[in-house]
What we know:
By secondary structure, this protein is mainly alpha-helical. The chain contains five helices and no strands. The radius of gyration is 16 Å and the shape is elongated.
Amino acid sequence: MGAGARRGRAAAVHRAVVTIIVVALGLAACSSDGGSGAETLTADELAEGANQICGDARARLDPQGEEVFAGIQPDAEALAAFHTTLVADLELQLAQFRELSPPPELADDYAEYLELAADAIDEVRSGGPEGLLSPVDPFERVNERASALGFDVCVP
């Protein structure tokens, strides 16, 4: 494989990882079970809260992801460490978003979003570090739902 092909593959892998991170952040931002007893939010307040959580998560994860995927082939040890960090951060985000209570008119869409997000996070977890190199985006449907809900910062 020539240098150009390796750079192209590295760029594709980097885009896939950034997509996973952004989608995961968006998913986590929307993972409320609605039963937290929190005050019901308006659609705008829900989007604002989700976007804040996603923005904070990006600030934490993007620098690490960029460092791990800076080369043509990520270092296996660094990739494993990043996978561990990513999964832990997604779990943190899920806990934060469970505190959000969507408005009644978005309850069904939000519940579907949370289910899709949980499935995608499980896929990232079970795929291990090597799964981060896959061109398959486990968050594709989650991103579509996040976009529909107005979670703009959560969508790559």
